[in-house]
Amino acid sequence: MDNAFHDLPIRSEIYLDPQPYSSVGIVEKRLSNLERLRNNTFFRRIVLLGVLASIWQIYAVTLDNGLLFPTFTDTMQALYTGIVSGGLLEKSWTSISVLLVGYACGIVLATLLTIFAITTRVGNDILETLTSMFNPLPAIALLPLALIWFGLGQGSLIFVLIHSVLWAVALNTHSGFMSVSLTMRMVGRNYGLTGFGYVLRILIPAAFPSILAGLKIGWAFAWRTLIAAELVFGASSGSGGLGWFIYQNKNQLEIPSVFAGLFMVIFIGLIVENFIFKVIERVTIRKWGMQT
Question: I need a labelling partner for 213 at 20 to 30 A (CA). Which of 8, 85, 159, 176 fits?
């Protein structure tokens, strides 16, 4: 074996003088306008929405039955009329204002319940028992009881909204807290953190992806529950927000306006998702390097 190595030719060393960086140049490929547009997320989504609107228009024109499925153009005309003179913006704000109150109350209660669960064994048992009992229960199923307890008013709406938000946020937050690594926990203990300070400075930042996911789920549940509850309130008391707008126009067979109300529900959901939660995500978990 040693003789075989001795028979190999000896390669002479090669020495190269270092070249200045300016002589190498920068290797880059200039993107075309089409490639830039393809890499733009906003443009891709606009194109997707345009395709969906075109399919909607073609199908509605082919069906030719405005009572079953109005065209996209008729829906946009009804949306414009509702905004300008139909009080659609006012009804949207009515729904949003109620939602904000219920959402905030649900988050506060979920925070207190989760902190109690993460710091005490009894609290953990209470949270796990309550979430297993009430999380599968649809909030809208509690509306008849809410009407009896709180009457025809915002109190009933806020009650079912709290139910929609509380368990989703508490469950995701608790799961996030439990998934925090032992190293992070030991760091907090070594700094002498206990109780609320330990939760605020260690657990919440480390578990924030799960907390944000719970906030998104709670928002979606609350928004759907509110619209469904307002449909019932509209039938009962003749008042409400977007749900009442949809219900009223359905009774008058103004189907384009019904679709316009549904379109406004979707539009508000997109605004909240892309301009509120995305911003929070960008300045927190992405900035912290917890998500790419």
Answer: 159
